[in-house]
Structure prediction request, 88 residues.
Amino acid sequence: EKWECYPDLKSVPKRIDIVLVFRRSEEALEPVKEAVARKKDKGDVYVVWLQQGIRNEEARKLAEENEILFVQDRCMVHEYQMVYLMDE
Prediction:
């Protein structure tokens, strides 16, 4: 599959379910603002996930106020492995 890069979330032509953020904690608010704008415009973006070690309470509040599920300071791969192992 071909990988494509976009300058921001509004430029992504396909549906976005999860925005996975790999930025410093103090820089995590901007992608959440973009996710909120995208949700208001296109109706997608259901989850914003801040990678392990990344926390931003202002971003959390903004996401939750706009009905976006917000996860912070968690590794998606580790969470997936924990769920997968529990099912075996």
Q: What stands out?
A: The longest helix spans residues 29-42. The radius of gyration is 14 Å. The chain has a mean pLDDT of 93. The helical segments are 29-42, 57-65, 76-87.
